[in-house]
Design brief:
This protein has 486 residues and is of the alpha/beta class. It has 15 helices and 23 strands. Bound molecules: nicotinamide-adenine-dinucleotide and (2E,4E)-2-amino-6-oxohexa-2,4-dienoic acid (6OD).
Length: 486
């Protein structure tokens, strides 16, 4: 069985107190790895290694030298592409094609794109007048923040971790990463890559473990951590923000969502069905940007529900390595229980179950996996639990609407504000509606399509701050103003 150790100061190490925990396959619940849980001592060692590397060798490199090394990281990930795909499939149980075509390549790109950003970022300067007529020149330099604590979730582990590590390193910081306890494999592989391409020891560190009273909490409490970037649940973000307040550390948060999909009657019908289907069911619904509330203009409502039902009933359950599989399990037994509890609530609150609502019949070798059916509901009021709360599963509620104002009000009636997908062929309407939806990103006639150089983040309780392209520099660097009397 695979053993996963912490990666501290360029070495793979187990915990001094000998604590290990098990990683189970989502597909069949078999134990696939044992993982060394970092205690306070390992977290302290990792943070101190990061601090020393950042103040020392890493901080002393030129931008060009760092950029070259990060290009090397991207190239080495590409060289070991199959290892990364296999590791992510084992951890998440999600189909080969999703890892191969979406998550792993985008993860590798995170190193190249942010290396390019840092290479090309312009510096700000202003000439000012002074009473003696000589003037002064003000110019800004950007300096790294220091040690960045990176805490990442399990749903797209490699993509969401590198999305933070790429810009943090490009800006000259060192990092200590706490991957989700459910998905440590690709972060460990990245440690191997870092050593192979010559990233100095201590620049990239990994501590494994859980959140409360474990590696995650210890990391957020460490006084040498200068800033914390976190992707995960809104509730966890609240806890981390309290820890970050001690020492006045900056935070960047990408949190939960309850995203709306809006389908107007003038849409390209087949494209809208395909797009909404993908946004609800990709990754078994475990995508922060996924759609759990669908609003369809009344004149095409019945036809749309029937088409989405047909697609939901045609998914291919199966092991991720099997190229015919299009649909994987949920991440864990605990998450399966959570999603099934929402399936039960929808039923109790009077939903019309269009399809799904339970557990599929699986072959004997997959029976212990965390499988649930793709599920569609109609007929619930906007106040129903499954229409309000984030489920993070393969399910949606579909309601009819009659006017633009009505659907905008419904889409905005949530504490979250992450994303929306709108389907219409009337471009004036698309722009008009998009501007009024209170989210960080709106897609028009598409979904989950974003240039890594653009701003990404959530409104309301879906996050704090924006990352992506130059926006990431606002978080991963500090600006210093230098004023020269001329
Ligand atoms: P989670 O909040 O349970 O865990 C995320 C990470 O935080 C894990 O590594 C976990 O160990 C750690 N953690 C938990 N408690 C902690 C604590 N007290 N101190 C420090 N670390 C702690 O989230 P999850 O279940 O892994 O992921 C699913 C959630 O993430 C969903 O709500 C989803 O919407 C959200 N998400 C958001 C985005 C985004 O970009 N906005 C992207 C992906 C996922
Ligand atoms: O790469 C992206 O655009 C991104 N941040 C995706 C987030 C996916 C959340 O599950």
């Amino acid at each position: 069985m695979q053993e996963i150790r912490n990666f501290i100061n360029g070495e793979f190490v187990a915990a001094a107190d000998g604590r290990w925990f098990e990683k189970r396959s989502p597909v069949d619940n078999s134990v696939i790895a044992r993982i060394a849980e970092a205690g306070r001592a390992e977290v302290d060692a990792a943070v101190r290694a990061a601090h020393a590397a950042q103040k020392g060798v890493w901080g002393g490199l030129t931008t060009e030298q760092r950029v070259d090394l990060l290009y090397g990281v991207a190239d080495e990930i590409t060289r070991r592409f199959e290892d990364f795909v296999a590791a992510e499939m084992a951890d998440t149980g999600q189909p080969n094609h999703v890892q191969r075509h979406v998550f792993i390549p985008r993860g590798a790109a995170n190193f190249k794109v942010f290396a390019d950003v840092i290479k090309n970022v312009p510096a700000e300067s202003f000439q000012m007048a002074t009473p003696d007529g000589r003037g002064a020149l003000n110019y800004a330099i950007r300096v790294p923040k220091g040690v960045i604590g990176v805490i990442s979730p399990w749903n797209a582990p490699f993509l969401l971790m590198t999305w933070k590590v790429g810009p943090a390193l490009a800006c000259g910081n060192a990092v200590v990463v706490k991957p989700s306890e459910e998905t440590p494999l690709t972060t460990t592989l990245l440690g191997e890559v870092m050593n192979k391409v010559g990233i100095p020891a201590g620049v990239f560190n990994v501590i494994n473990g859980f959140g409360p009273n474990s590696a995650g909490e210890f990391l957020t409490q460490h006084p040498l951590v200068d800033a914390i970037t976190f992707t995960g649940e809104t509730r966890t973000g609240t806890t981390i923000m309290k820890a970050a307040a001690e020492g006045m550390r900056d935070v960047s948060f990408e949190l939960g969502g309850k995203n709306a999909g809006i389908v107007f009657a003038d849409c390209d019908f087949n494209a809208a069905v395909d797009g909404i289907f993908r946004s609800v069911f990709l990754n078994t619904g475990q995508v922060c940007l996924g759609t759990e509330r669908v609003y369809v203009e009344r004149t095409i409502f019945e036809q749309f529900v029937a088409a989405l039902k047909a697609k939901a009933e045609s998914v291919n359950y199966g092991r991720p390595e099997d190229h015919a599989s299009t649909y994987g399990p949920l991440i864990s037994a605990e998450h399966k229980q959570k999603v099934l509890s929402y399936y039960a609530k929808a039923k109790a609150e009077g939903a019309n179950i269009v399809t799904g609502g339970g557990v599929p019949t699986m072959p004997a070798d997959l029976q212990d996996g965390h499988w649930v059916q793709p599920t569609i509901w109609t007929g619930l009021p906007e106040t129903a639990t499954v229409v309000r709360e984030e489920i993070f599963g393969p399910c949606c509620h579909i309601s009819p609407f009659d006017s633009e104002d009505e659907v905008i009000n419904k889409a905005n009636a949530t504490d979250y504000g992450l994303s929306t997908t709108i389907w219409t062929t009337n471009l004036a309407r698309a722009h008009r509606v998009a501007a009024r939806i209170e989210v960080g990103i709106t897609w028009i006639n598409c979904w989950f399509l974003r240039d890594l150089r653009t701003a990404f983040g959530g409104s309301k309780q879906s996050g704090i701050g924006r990352e992506g392209g130059v926006h990431s520099l606002e978080f991963y660097t500090e600006t210093r103003n230098i004023c020269v009397k001329l």
